[in-house]
Amino acid sequence: MRFLNGMSVLVGLTLVTGCQSKDAADPTKAGSAPAARSTKGGGLANLNPPPPAPTNSPAGIPVVLPTSGRIHSVNTGLRFAVIDYTLGGMPDIGALLYVYRNNEKVGQIRLSGPEPRNGFITGDVVEGFIQIDDEVRIH
Asked: Which domains does the chain have, with CATH numbers?
């Protein structure tokens, strides 16, 4: 009985130490590489991610959005309009903007407060007849 107990301990130690290799990847050894992961069993690790997509603008040059908006609503009695700049590129408050319809200038708006909210800002109608969906530009 003692022999069987001693034998089972010996077999157990052999199995445990036999699973380890002397050539296992050691980060301190030169030329050793980490083992690749298996993708079986739901492993979703991507060891070689694709390179970033190339851009058309050189590095270090900021992207400037066009400062063009659309008339969202108009109050003709109080002579102000709400301008939609949800695509970005909103000019500063106090800027004088030109309003175009079918690429023809139809009026001017000066941006006023309150502060822009969710891409919308109000402007006072300086001149012209402004309609919903007219385009607002700096020049």
From this structure: 69-137 (2.40.10)
